Sequence to fold (848 residues):
Amino acid sequence: MRERITVYLGGVVVLGLAMVPFVPGAPDSYLFYFLFLFFLHTAIAQSWNLVAGFTGQISLGQHAFFGLGAYTTALIWQRQLFGESYGYYFDPLVLILSGLVAGIFALMVGFPLLAKLRGDYFALGTLGFGEIIRVAFVKGGQFTGGPFGIIMPSSVYETLRPHYWVGLALAGGLTYMIHRIRRSHFGLALISVRDDELAASSHGIDILKYKLIAFALGAVFTGIAGSLYGHYLFHVSPDGFLNLNWTLYPILMAVIGGSGTVLGPVVGAFAMTAVFTLASVSYPEIHPIFSGAVIILVMLFMPNGIMRLAKR
Amino acid sequence: MWQFLSLGLLAELTVNGILFGAMYGVAAVGLSLIFGTMRIIFIAQGTIIILGAYLVYWLFTLGGIDPYLSLLLVVPAAFIAGAGVYQALFRKAAAISDKNTSLLIAVGLMFLVQNTMSYAWTPNPKSIVTGYTALGVEILNMRLSFTRLMSMVIAFAATGAVVVFLRRTLVGKAVRAASENMQAAMLMGIDPHRVNAIAFAIGFALAGAAGVALATTYPFDPYFGFVFALKALIALALGGIGNVVGALVGGLALGLIESYSAFFISGGWADAISYGVFLLVLMFRPEGLFVRSIKKA
Amino acid sequence: MNPLLEIRNLAVAYGDVQALWDVSLNVEEGTIVSVLGANGAGKSTLMRTISGLMRPRSGEILFEGKVFSGKRPQQITAAGICHVPEGRGLFSQLTVQENLELGAYLPSVRGYFAQSLERVFELFPKLKERRHQQANSLSGGEQQMVAIGRAIMARPKLLILDEPSLGLSPIIVRQMFELIEALNRQGVTILIVEQNIRQALKIATRAYVLHTGRVAMEGRAEDLLANPEIQKAYMGTLD
Fold:
């Protein structure tokens, strides 16, 4: 019952947020940009949560998926793969393809890694994968634009509204999906894998299949988020998109909010986006110092995340 | 390219690989110790090395203290700082079975330290130039830079000291015991916080030594630390996680891989190749390349 | 006189799962006490709580009349309780001698190191031969000797043995029980958890039977040995 109310309340909040761009002047405010970042962060934090929170496998290669998504968009657009007159800017097909490319990479690399590696070793393996992808794009020469990356025509930019809506849809949709998954057979299977792999395998759950699906789904959404951020910057580069921060941020947000919970990553994304933006507005020169201190303090005093603290 | 390849060139690539690899090795030894008792990858290790390098730089430019002389200051200071950092930041988290908390505190520490350094000393690369920076030693027709040679000596000496400590002292044996089986160690009366603090203290002291070695040989900037930690991690995997001598050997192997692949393939791909080797090792020899696999009794 | 170890109404839980309910148990000085029960009855949990590896939810543990529940393992070890855990808990990468040295890790017993080492090597001459070998290169019986030897190095007043005969051949098991009795005669009080119920009851003074986390039965060991119910429940398959 309480959960139902939370879902309805969540729906109302998402609808309310979807109306914000119609408020005159809103799209030009800093708060609007903040919300866009919050949605983007929620999407990548939830994607990581899907893998780590529910299967217990920590991926340290999310930046590769984020970058793969962004580069897919940039390459399709720059090369005009669908013809010259095609509207690439916020084209649903381009967004979905960007996610799928990341997902295909996740399947290819996830199968051997998940089949063979556990715990820390899986984390390190994904980290190695992520770095290989980064180096490959830096060294990609003409094709990837090398260390400079690819520029997309920013003349199409009018407002931040489409970014905001796509971000909201990603964040809201993903959160709702995780809520549904948690309730489903699939979700229970994931959780049983996390809690007791041996027991789960003896009950005939095909562990590898479930882990692989979770890993690939997380990659698809992270890839779409990467594409979305590419639509905002119009410049996809290794430094901007294949930076390890895109792995660290979602982990931070999910864990600070409470990984393995449905709303934890949302709360964590909100808190960290607030900390990051507040710090960069008020004290731009010491912003990362401040963020580092916040991470340490939260972990010292709320080691299980904000959501789990609230439950008690 | 092949026609230029002489025995002398091959030897030089090998020597350079070993010299740089020794530094990865020291960093990996520190990671290995902390992983042993705490079961976390202390991702801030590289950043602490850079902090050590800045300290050396600072002592040199402001106090005129010779970089090698500053070892006597930096290493003990780092040792104490390591124990302090454990007590202040990790003591509470160490008791929690979920290792993510400790891992994230390490991430937070890395952010904090690298950006504080960037704020204090600017993000521009720094390097130390002394009277002997340009000195070289001629061995078998090869010119070896004196400072690089010294870095290797520091690396080997530091690792050797740690090995002696672990093998010869009761506290060292307690650290090894705790790395293998913390609960059984507790039943011997070993205080887990004490061995954790010692592992951190030694890890930091090694980072201090590596900082001296780095500052005298290569330019460094605040953000280089993270890359360094990743390299140390690869070295650790190559040598077998939790094996101190293996960590040094893994570092040397990584140095060689990088040196050869930078020459034979291309500079930029060296990183991808080391990560590729890292992945292959994780998949097929997770116990490390240089350990005889021991059958569990 | 107070018993050496006194446990009053102990309750222990792993998270939400309670493992022990209202367990009370006494170990008089100089005796051997056996704790019996099926797998999952809570025997190991009880031992782990006594040695401080787990914290009780409620109840008290008194050792020599002083409250020790909730103290840390190193304080409990320092007070003279030595726990050889299930599976022996050897440091397999360390040598035999290093394992023994760590048995005498605490400053209070380090002074007796040479003396204790001699005592262990007298009891187990084989260990002296193999002292520089890595512990995992030893046979199961020899490893159990190292585990008990390591405990002797700590000069315990109370020795807790959790399933010492697990995985050993019948001859070695018999030698082990003889050894336990010999140690007891030398003045070490012993609390032993065993699957090998007949042997454990033969050497014990008193025994407790745990059933799903509670004390189901207690009494003099010889009475329990003669008890038809015990014979039926625990020894039927062993004959």
About this structure: The interface with chain B takes residues 51-53, 72-74, 77-78, 82-83, 85, 89-94, 98, 101-103, 105-106, 110, 136-138, 140, 143, 150, 154 of chain C (CB under 8 Å). Chain C has one domain: 29-49+78-204+216-235.
